[in-house]
Amino acid sequence: MIVSTKGRYALRVMVSLALARDGEYIPLKQIAEEEQISRKYLEAIMTTLSKAGFVDAVHGKGGGYRLNRPTRDYTVGSILKLTEGGLATVSCTTQGPSACARATCCRTLPMWERLDKMIDDFFEGITLEDLLNEGQNG
Amino acid sequence: MIVSTKGRYALRVMVSLALARDGEYIPLKQIAEEEQISRKYLEAIMTTLSKAGFVDAVHGKGGGYRLNRPTRDYTVGSILKLTEGGLATVSCTTQGPSACARATCCRTLPMWERLDKMIDDFFEGITLEDLLNEGQNG
DNA sequence: CCCCTTACCTACTTTGTCAATAGGTAAAAG
DNA sequence: CTTTTACCTATTGACAAAGTAGGTAAGGGG
User: Fold this and answer.
1) CA separation (Å) from A3 to A10, A81, A119, B79, B137?
2) B115 neighbourhood in chain A, CB within 8 Å
3) By three-state DSSP, how is residue A22 classified?
4) Residue B23 backbone class (left: φ over 0; alpha: ψ -120 to 50; beta: rest)
5) Which residue is nearest nucleotide D6, judged by alpha carbon to C1' distance?
6) Average pLDDT of the residues in A22-28
7) Closest residue by Cα to residue B22 from B85, B70, B83, B54
8) B66 and B20 in contact (C-beta within 8 Å)?
9) Which terminus of chain B has fewer CB atoms gathered within 10 Å of its CB, N or C?
10) Burial tier of B90 (Cβ tally within 10 Å: 0-12, 13-18, 19+)
11) Is the pLDDT of residue B64 over 80?
12) What does the H/E/C string look like for B40-109?
């Protein structure tokens, strides 16, 4: 399972916000109900998106969340990397001190690296706008 | 993490067996030492490979495991699907009774399906023989 | 000033899977 | 009949994912 609920929920929420009227703030409670996501769990996700500057957040009545850029400017990759903390498919490709000891001679490592690259390209090549044009109804 | 140690170990073991002399049986103990994999843990993996007919297994002295087809006939995908129990990246794409209730209208589902297809094609397009030609030494 | 709504923060619990371990039984060779 | 090997069943420990609980702070409306 490469993508956990955190990243999947984040994507659905961003799509949800993209469907709102321009400039309108949507409260978390409403999103949670519409998307049938645990309210408390969603809080953590929204805070992450807010702190990273992906959405604007406003307190109090009439407040909530909204996008702050055109949908074309959000890639699926950027949202997933933020909420998932990266997209690596195997631990083998992590660099630095915790890198795999057999990296220099491993016959499978080049394959994992190509896979990571392919997946990164895939997600970076899809924007929120693209997602809006998918799905059958609603 | 799309691929756990089970699948990664399985791949390395298969590569290891591919390097053996034709027809020679390699005991599990030796593979575990060479690949620095827990012997007991590897037992479960080898039994899976054996029961699925991916390798021949012979008891007693001089026994062990060996491949039973040319390396060109093993795809990485087949090995991973067997040991990982599938390659789905998200739970969303599972069909049947446990399928996602929002499948018919979800704007992200088509993307997950394309991703799964892309990953499947990737792994099915690589064989053990391809892996033998990778890596820098030994 | 008070109340309500909202975002934001810290901590906890629950659940489940991965990775590994332990201790056996059964087959085959010498 | 002993050694070497594969095979089987159960259990443990570690860890993260998923969700829960109970607060504090900011902002608008009366």
Assistant:
1) 11, 10, 12, 22, 34
2) 119, 122
3) coil
4) left
5) B59
6) 95
7) B70
8) yes
9) C
10) buried
11) yes
12) HHHHHHHHHHHHCCCEEEECCCCCEEEECCCHHHCEHHHHHHHHHCCCCCCHHHCCCCCCCCCCCCCCCH
Candidates B107, B121, B136: best to mutate against A (most CBs of A within 10 A) is B107
For residues A80 and B103, what is the distance between their CA atoms, to the nearest angstrom? 20
- Predicted confidence at residue A138, as pLDDT, reads 46
Predicted local distance difference test score (pLDDT) of residue B94: 85
Where do we find the tokens 């699948």? B7
**pLDDT surpassing 60 at residue A81:** yes
> Which pLDDT does position B68 carry in this prediction?
96
The backbone torsions φ and ψ at residue B85, rounded to the nearest 5 degrees and listed phi first, read 75, 35
For chain A residues 82-121, those near strand D by a CB cutoff of 7 A are none
Structure tokens at B63: 């026994």
**Mean pLDDT over residues A15-43, rounded?**
95
Q: Which domains does chain A have, with CATH numbers?
A: 5-88+127-132 (1.10.10.10)
Question: pLDDT-based confidence at B111, cuts 50/70/90?
Answer: very high
How confident is the model at residue B136, as a pLDDT? 54
Helix (H) or strand (E) holding A131: helix A128-132
Does B138 have pLDDT greater than 80? no
